[in-house]
Amino acid sequence: MRKKKGESLASPDLNKAWSAFFEDVAVTDPAELKKQGWMTNAEIAEQSKLEGEAGRQIADIAVRRGVLEKKVAKVLIKGRRWNVNFYRPIT
Fold it and tell me: What is the pTM of this model?
């Protein structure tokens, strides 16, 4: 006879586990974040007239100094989920 490998989850625990899973895999709409004032590294670099990695560097320095706040969001880019850094000024 087979051995039981573990206890099955009660219904509320199971619902909580599924909610946590779907929250973890949820994708954020970048357009919605832009409406809220968030910008990506690339947008910061473009508006600052900088190239490449410089946008991320100045944004991260501004976060450390308390000028900007940072948010990492999962977004779809060409059918794949990516973690993208978004920044906005602290008001």
Answer: 0.74
